[in-house]
Amino acid sequence: MAGGATVSDDLVEYGFRRVIITITAVLCALLEIVDTTIVNVALNEMRGSLGATLTDVAWVITAYAIANVIVIPMTSWLSQQFGRRNYFAASIIIFTVSSFLCGNADNIWELVIFRFIQGMGGGALLVTAQTIITESYPVEKRGMAQAIYGMGVIVGPTLGPPLGGWIVDNWSWPYIFYINVPLGIIATMLSIAYVRSPKYGEKLSADKVDWWGMIFLIAFIGSLQFVLEHGQQDDWFEDPLIVGLSVLSVFGLLAFVWRESVYEHPIVNLKVLKDSNLRIGVVMSFIMGFGLFGSTFIIPIYTQSILGWTATDAGLLLIPSSLMTAFMMPFVGQMIQRGLKKTYMVAAGFSIFVGFTLWMYTVMTPDTGGEHFFKPLILRGVGLGLLFVPITTMSLSTLKGKAIGEGAAFTGMLRQLGGSFGIAIISTFITRFTQAHRVDLVAHEPVYDFATQQRVMQMQHGFMAKGFSANQALDMAYAGMQGSVMKQATVLSYMDIFLYLGILFAICIPFILLIKEGKNKIDMADAMH
After folding, report:
1. Ranges of the chain with pLDDT below 70
2. pLDDT digit string (tens) for 331-383?
3. How big, in percent rounded to 5, are the helix, strand and coil portions of the chain?
4. Would the N or C end of the chain have less CB density within 10 A of its end CB?
5. In angstroms, how far is CA 429 from the centroid of its own chain?
6. Cα angle vertex 370, ends 365, 373, to 5°?
C-alpha cells in the first residue's frame, strides 16, 4: 500500500501523525455538533437578557440549522476549490470568531446573524472531518475510522444540553459560545500543522463556478429547513409564508437536480449516487437521523414538562445512553474488520431500537422516576452503536478519491435533514395527539359523574383548608382537574410517538436484509491493490 497506486492512498497516515489528525477531526466534529444542541437549554436566559419573544429566540436554532444544511452538500466542492487544509482551517477560524461574536451580541438579531455565520463554518467541519478521518486510514481499517468519528457524532448531541445547563446555571449564556474559542484556536493550529490536502481537484475560475447550482441549492434546502423548523408553530399550510417556501423548496429541488445533471462543473456531484451502497446508506442515514435526533428531542421535553425536572437533570439523563454508544463503537469497528456482514449489524441495530421504543412506551406515566429510564436508554445506546458505524462504513466503502468526500456530504446532509424532519413531525404529532386524547379523556370524565364530583369536592375542601373561599376553592379544583387531564393527554401522546417510531424502524428491517453487500467486497479488494 505504501507504493501509493491510488490518489486516496497518498493521504493514509501512520503512527503519531494519524493520532493527532484523528483527535483534531473528532474535536472539530464535536465542536460543531455540541453547538447544535447546547443552545436549547439557554433559550430562556437569552430571551430575558436580549428582550426577545419565544418566536424570535427560536431563530437562534433555525439560523444555525439552515446554514449547516446549505454548506454540507457544498463542502466537497469547496475543499477542491481552496485545498482541503486551507478550507478546513478557514472553517474552524470562521466558527471560532463567530462563536466569540455570538457571546458578545447586544440584541437577538445580531445573535441570529452570527449564529448563521457560525453554522456556515460549522457545517464544513462535520463532513470535512469525516473525509479526513476516512482517508487517513487504510481501506481495511476504515470501519475503525468511522467508529472513532462516530463517537464524536453520537455523543455530541447528548453532551450539549447538560453542558449548556451547567454553564447557564453557574455562569451566563454567553459562555456557551466562549467555550469554543480556546478549543477552536487549538484545532486551527493542529489542522494547519498536520492536515494534508489531496492532489485531485483543480481550482475553477469564477466564470466556470456553478453559481446557479448554488442558488437552487440554497432555495431548496434553506426553504425546506425553515418550513420544518417553523411549520408547527405557524400552523403549517394555513400560513402563506410556509406555503410559499414549500413551493420554492420543490421548485429549487427540481431546478437543482436538472442543473447538476447538465452542467460541466457541478457544485454537488449527483453522479456519485450511482453507487448502490451510497444510495442505501443515504436513506438509512436519514432514518437514523430521524430516530437519533427525534428521541434526543422528545425525552428531555417529556422529563421537563411532565416530570418537572431541571434542564441539567434532563440533559444528564441521556449521558449513559451516549456513553454506551461510545463504548460500543470500537467493538463494532472490530466486527466490521473481521468481516461480519454490515447489513446484519444494521438490522440488529434497528431491532434493538424497536425494543427501546416499545420499552419507553410501557414505562411512561405522569410520574415515572429516572431509574425507570436507565435500562431502556442503555438499550438505545447499544442500538445506535450498531447503526452508525456500519451505515457510514457501508455508504463510503466502494468510493475512492474525491468521491469519498462527496459521499460523506450526502450522508451528513441526509442525517441532518432526517433529524429536522423527525423533530418537525414529532412536535406536530404531539400537539395533534394531545388534543385528540384530551377530547377522549373529557368524554370519559363528565362533570356530573359521581366519581368526578367526589374528586372535585375533595380538592375544594383541600384548598378551603388552606384559607381560600368556597368559590375560589371550587375554581381551583376545576383548574386542577383540567391540568391533570391535560397532563394525562400529553403522556398518552408521547406514548403514541414512541409506538409509531417503533413501527417505522420495524418496517425498515426486512428491507435492510434484502440489501446485497457483495459488490463492495470486489471494490474493496480493488482499492487495496
Report:
1. 1-14, 53-55, 199-207, 446-448, 516-529
2. 888 888 787 888 888 889 989 989 999 998 888 888 777 788 888 989 988 88
3. 85, 0, 15
4. C
5. 19
6. 75
